[in-house]
Each structure stands twice: as structure tokens, then as C-alpha cells.
Design brief:
There is one protein chain. The protein is 41% helix and 18% strand. The chain has a six-stranded parallel beta sheet with strand order 6-11-10-9-8-7. The protein has a four-stranded antiparallel beta sheet with strand order 3-5-1-12, with helices on one face. It has a two-stranded antiparallel ribbon with strand order 2-4. α1 crosses α2, α2 runs antiparallel to α3 and α3 crosses α4. It is elongated and about 70 Å long.
Length: 292
């Protein structure tokens, strides 16, 4: 299942530049804004700094940190000890920086904001991926993302070993209860989707009962979202499906019960909390005392 955003290295670099530019403008009061406090430092002063991880985490956000620093100091030199998708440990130095002291001071908070958020998403995703390891289930994200940072967060899900659901409303079809009601039923809405959604990455329909699942399968559904079903019902759904459609679980998913859900034999488990309920990873930037 492809999306309209390819997550190539060049695409990520372009995205990070846009995100960094917007975030810096927000912090500086516009594209031509100023950091009043960093302005106290001599503009010619150079500095060395380190970024330290205060806890174990899966790193994500390298490109965003680089984009933030290089927009303020294109000559800044960054040496990473850990890259996206790799794990760091508590008290580990993950990055060495050399550059303009003013620029490092101005970029510090914005760069760390990206790093702490995206690493948090990657770390939480990895925790869920580990919980289902050895089963056929994939951990999948949702559209429950921070406004303006959806692509960045979905990239972080990938760095944690997860799988992206649709990017937005434009690249795939997800037929839910209200769509079914408005279209006149499951069979009718699937027939309409087959006619009009010719360029969609996929067409998925949500069902709440086994009877609805049977109707969806009879109508040719290739992806079915099983909404808020208990474990015995999920097991019956897998038996009814017999591999005909990709089955996804949504609703009421917890880390503690994740393995049990995965063992029912479903293909995907979508979890909004991967991007919605994240606790920032603690990083800090520390200047070294000597000049460069």
C-alpha cells in the first residue's frame, strides 16, 4: 500500500526544511525576526556544543535538527553518534556541533523540540512493535497527529518500525459508519468506491459486527477495519475471512493487551496513541567552555 508521499531521502530533506523554516519563524516573530537574548553574544563568536540524551530512546529527527541549524548557520558542522532509527542510552552524547554561538543559541529550542517529539513517536512505536514481534500483525499509525507535523510524525513511526496508514483524506479511502449510512449500506458504498476512487492507495471499510464483515467480504472488500471487537469476536472474524481481505483492528487497543490482539491472526493494529499521546524524550544541549 503506497501513499502519495514517498519518504525518500530528498523528500525528507525538503520536508524538514519547510518545517524548520516555519518553526523558526514562529520563534523569532517572522522570517526576518530576531533573537533578542542571543543578540547579547558577539556575532563572530564560535562555539562547540553537545546534545545529550537523558533517557534511552529510538532517535528520530536528525534531518530536522540539521535543517534548523543550517538555516541559521549554513557552515555549522554536525557529527552524529546515533542516526534515525537507532537507539541511544541515557546520558549518551548523540551529537557534536561546531558553529556560530548566536546561531546555536537561537536554534537550540527549535532543534530540540523536533528531536524530542519525533524520537518520542519512534520510541513509542518501537515499544508496540516489540510487543507483537513474532506475530503477523503490523503496528499502524492514524491521522491523530499534531497539526502541521503529520508527515514528520509518520516518518517517525517508520523509524520505530511501524507502518503508515493513509497520509490524509486525499490518498486513500476509509469508509466509516457515517459514510455507510449516508450511502445506503455496505454493499452500496463499496460499489460506489470502486467507481470513483480509482487512484486511491487502498479502499478500506469499517465494520462493527460479524454480519457486516460477511456483507463487506461478499461485496468484494479487500481491507476491513474491525472496530472495537472483543477477542472472541476477532477470532471469529479471522476464521470468517479466511485470508480474503486484510484485517485491521482499531479501538480500545492498549499496550498490555496488544499481544493478545495480535495472536488472533489479524494483519494490522492501528493505534492513534503512537502520535497523539506521546511523552517527549529528554534531550539537552550543552556548550563547551572553550572557544573553537
Amino acid at each position: 500500500m503506497s501513499t502519495l508521499f514517498d519518504f525518500s531521502e530528498q523528500a525528507i530533506q525538503n520536508l524538514a526544511k519547510i518545517d524548520a523554516s516555519r518553526a523558526l519563524a514562529e520563534d523569532l516573530g517572522g522570517v526576518d525576526g530576531h533573537d533578542l537574548t542571543a543578540g547579547l553574544i558577539n556575532a563572530n563568536h564560535k562555539a562547540k556544543a553537545q546534545v545529550l540524551a537523558r533517557e534511552s530512546a529510538v532517535i528520530c529527527g536528525v534531518t530536522w535538527v540539521e535543517a534548523t541549524l543550517h538555516q541559521l548557520d549554513p557552515t555549522a558542522q554536525l557529527k552524529w553518534n546515533v542516526r534515525d532509527g537507532q537507539r541511544c542510552e541515557a546520558n549518551q552524547v548523540i551529537l557534536h556541533i561546531e558553529g556560530s554561538a548566536q546561531s546555536l543559541l537561537t536554534a537550540e529550542r527549535t532543534a530540540l523540540n523536533f528531536l524530542q517529539l519525533l524520537s518520542a513517536v519512534a520510541t513509542k512505536t518501537a515499544l508496540h512493535v516489540d510487543a507483537v514481534r513474532g506475530t503477523k500483525a503490523h503496528i499502524v499509525d492514524t491521522r491523530k497527529t499534531l497539526p502541521g507535523l503529520r508527515l514528520a510524525q509518520k516518518y517517525a513511526v517508520r523509524m520505530g518500525g511501524g507502518v503508515n496508514h493513509r497520509i490524509g483524506l486525499y490518498d486513500a479511502v476509509l469508509i466509516k459508519e457515517n459514510h455507510i449510512a449516508a450511502a445506503g449500506g455496505i454493499t452500496q458504498v463499496l460499489a460506489q468506491a470502486a467507481k470513483v476512487a480509482l487512484h486511491a492507495s487502498f479502499i478500506e471499510i469499517e465494520v462493527e459486527t460479524l454480519a457486516q464483515l460477511e456483507e463487506a467480504l461478499a461485496a468484494g472488500a479487500q481491507m476491513v477495519l474491525l472496530d472495537n471487537m472483543d477477542v472472541p469476536t476477532l477470532q471469529k472474524a479471522v476464521a470468517i475471512n479466511q485470508g480474503r481481505a486484510i484485517l485491521e483492528i482499531s479501538g480500545g487497543v492498549t499496550l498490555e493487551g496488544l499481544r493478545t490482539l495480535a495472536n488472533t491472526g489479524v494483519d494490522r493494529i492501528s493505534i492513534g496513541a503512537l502520535t497523539k499521546d506521546v511523552k517527549a524524550i529528554d534531550f539537552s544541549m550543552r556548550f563547551e567552555s572553550q572557544n573553537v
